[in-house]
Design goal:
The complex is a heterotrimer of chains A (340), B (339) and C (298). In chain A, 33% of the residues lie in helices and 23% in strands. With 340 residues, chain A is α/β, with parallel strands linked by helices. By secondary structure, chain C is mainly alpha-helical. Chain C has one domain (18-295): MetI-like (MetI-like fold). Chain C has helices spanning 11-24, 27-44, 46-49, 86-122, 124-138, 142-153, 157-184, 187-195, 199-235, 246-256, 263-291. The chains are: A alpha/beta (340), B alpha/beta (339), C mainly alpha (298). The complex binds adenosine-5'-triphosphate (2 copies) and magnesium ion (2 copies).
Amino acid sequence: MTGERLLQVQDLTVRYQTQMGEIHAVSGVTFFVNKNEVFGIAGESGCGKSTLIRALMRLLPDNAKMSAQSIEYEGEELTRLSEAKFREKILWARMSLVPQSAMNSLNPVYRVGDQVVEAIRAPKNVTKSEAREPVTQLFDIVGLQPDLMKNFPHEFSGGMRQRAMIAMSLALDPGLVVMDEPTTGLDVLVQERILRRIREIRSQISSSIILITHDIAVIAEMSDRIAVMYGGQIMEQAPANDLFDTPCHPYTLGLKNAFPSIRNLQQKLISIPGSPPTLLGAPSSCPFLERCPFCVQQCSQRNPENITIQPLHEVRCVRHGEAPLLREKASEKETWRSLN
Amino acid sequence: MALLELNNVTKHFEVRQGVLQKLQRQPVSLIKAVQSVNLTLGENEVLGIAGESGCGKSTTCLMIAGMLQPSAGEIHFSGKRVDQLLASEQAWYRRQVQMIFQDPYESLNPRFRVLETVAEGPRALKLWPEKEILERSVDMLSSVGLPPAKYAERYPHELSGGERQRVGIASALVMEPRMVVADEPLSMLDVSIRAGILDLLKDLASKRHFSCVYVSHDLSILGHIADRLMIMYLGQAVEMGPTWEVIRNPQHPYTRALINAVPVPDPRVIRPVPTIRGEVSRPINPPPGCRFSPRCPHATTVCQQAFLQLQPDENKPHQTACVRLEELSQTNQLAEASP
Amino acid sequence: MPTSELPQTSAWRRILGEHYRIIMGNRLSAVGFVFIVLFLVVAIFAPWLAPHDPWEMLYDQEGEFASLRPPSWEFPMGTTHLGYDLFSQLILATRTTLLIGAISGGISILIGANIGLIAGYYGGKTDEVLMRFTDVLYGMPFLPFIIVLISLFGRELEFVILAIVLIIWRTSARVIRAQTISIKQRQFIAAARARGCSHLRIIYRHILPNVLPLLLLYAAFNIAWSIITEASASFLGFGDGETISWGGMLYELWLSGKTRVAWWWFTAPSLCIVLLVTSLVFVSRAYEEVANPRLRKR
Ligand SMILES: Nc1ncnc2c1ncn2[C@@H]1O[C@H](COP(=O)(O)OP(=O)(O)OP(=O)(O)O)[C@@H](O)[C@H]1O
Ligand SMILES: Nc1ncnc2c1ncn2[C@@H]1O[C@H](COP(=O)(O)OP(=O)(O)OP(=O)(O)O)[C@@H](O)[C@H]1O
Ligand SMILES: [Mg+2]
Ligand SMILES: [Mg+2]
């Protein structure tokens, strides 16, 4: 899959100002998304996934500071665009978002259908009745009956609200849809259906997706390329198959171990010991250091830089050269236990 | 005796009518969100509830937690009727049963700091002296993986989704309830933190008698924690049994489809396309029979008329609400749809 | 982990800091806030700041009766036809006006907030009764009602305040009821109930902080309204004759019949009214942005 570049993010950093000091929620993240591609971002809770996309969509709260070398979208430099211009030209029309809080992103006092109609009507300048037709189709895509358009959000179940939000994000045929945990709260059948439909739509109009989730299985099924985030940085980034066949970063290895599979219920899950880094202050060593069974002295001296070990496969680990050895050791439970 | 018992619990919501329909005096149609559900939960047991979005899981949870009145049926908790609690028994029930809500973005008060949220329950019921409440809350925060030094003073809007979920869990568990009703409590958490919280639950269970109703759409998670599993479809319970049995040997065509659709953490595996057709509808004035029948590849006219109701029975733990089950397993028709 | 390891910040400092940020975050409200503080200082220290007794007939340095003097070094804001020093009058009037504003504004928001919270939270019959009662008050025309009340009870300060309170709380009650109803439906209230919180606890600990910005907004409005109401009532001669207020000063001007000549007599109290009311409105605007996120810069 060698498509055209759609989005290229260089060196994105986001810091939150808090009473306890600066939280470096995202540090130096660089990635790209091609046209017609699903780019998955995986990582544990609090590692900065939502912050990353909120920065991209310029929806950060007031106490956040963001800086980036460049964010290029369809050849346009977004960092130079003013906030107002961005909202007017890019947001929703060309880049849309299904937020993690999708379940309560709907306005409780308006009917769900009207909200989606409004999302189409306002930018396209069509009448209400003209907009109703595509909304019915959108509801169909996400598996909601059209008669549900009359209902208020509190009459929806959690998953239905989430699907309504997904419908809204697809309303204007944006080139890029960012989905933050789109399938939490959706059962597998609906999830499957939505993901399938998204794939179908993708083959008709060229549209790319950034898919954020902690669920490795969903990412594995859906994505063409995957980035694994930890402590605000992308630790490893590779095409999906490469990442599953030849993972190189110890964190990726640990993540794979800890995932329950329904095909193998007896498999004892090996979880990664320890707790996530505090993210206070700029990273001066590898953030995975304290929890890594393979760490060496070098790891604590500086933050390892991004190394391309194969085309499209990048890793941030000083021991990337010994990957086969690490892979072998990581599948043994003892390796991870020795830490605590 | 079972700790919790649901007898024929039903919940109907009225469908909103337009002015025109009201004028025409059209009959009010009902959303039969939960229909005649029977279940029991023993001490120290974890019951998993799974099913499609909108099938009535949250509604069931809310009724068990006493937040919603059932339209019909009875809910007993350790011998008392929950749906008819006196005002004086409310506090007692709150102490016994705690609920973890589905949506962590809605269920935290935006003006409460993390520690205040967690300490609020014990403070409201004056469970312990203030100092002990604080200590316990702080301990609970660390057990769910939120170091208090870093999180205690934050507002919900300064937390990530998973962190919020853990605050919700901590504020329920700090009350040391006998039963927890958990509605998708870990959906935004990754596995390593999940494992920690599941350990915490087990720990609590060993210290005190502790049971749990655990709702999730994720069968692989349920497979790892639930003792028994109940599968729901559009408000009806379609299959119930020991987790192991249900996942290994699913019988109801819907359960089979559900298990087939669970994604596998390997991009090479191509799962079979589910054989069920159509899509979920809402349970508005549904037919009397099996509600899955319109989508079921094996449905006949019998299915549209009759529905088997699951009855808890110790001698027959694994039950399936499929009228044609025997017929199907004899002719081996189900096999073709299994994984 | 011991509780002592928690970051320690006093609750009050946190809350004050938050409000400081809200007010100072906006230039207009910051200016308004400075003016309010100035007026407060003047009100508190009024007896020490005023150079003369407000009802002392003054003579200038040459020994002449200082009647209707325009502002000068000696009389910074001029004098009345009876030779009273307007500067001293204004300073003492500030005290009265602020007192009336604070007390009637405060009491009315207290009543309004409680009625709004209770009606909104309990709904049903309670709501019906309380809201019909408010509706009845809504039917009352504002100034005539005040005038009737004052002429019934008398012109003492207490009754002026009472009359203002009675008429002003209704708007805040309505608005806070509406807000309470929308917050009541949020799931965190259900969560609080599930934790075992009593109704009163939910109202005052869970809902109140969420309507607080709106409440402060209406507190500022109420204070501004009380000041305007008091000024209007005093101007019509229904103020407390014993104490002096801004509206009362204008009333005296009217009585003296020197309206066309003594521009200074007119300017000072009117400016003060406008300044204080605008300052309050500016500060409340800052809260409005917090209370109503849709006003925030998009
Ligand atoms: N407004 C804020 N102020 C201060 N810290 C914040 C704020 N928002 C988020 N954080 C912190 O930044 C870190 C990253 O948060 P983010 O929401 O990006 O996580 P995430 O990867 O999306 O996690 P999850 O999977 O749990 O949603 C977290 O540790 C969180 O506590
Ligand atoms: N207050 C209400 N008024 C009307 N209908 C309602 C109400 N609450 C729920 N419903 C309907 O009842 C059905 C069951 O909803 P419920 O929230 O229990 O689903 P769920 O199983 O929890 O789904 P999810 O996994 O998506 O959260 C849905 O069709 C929903 O639209
Ligand atoms: Mg997130
Ligand atoms: Mg639900």
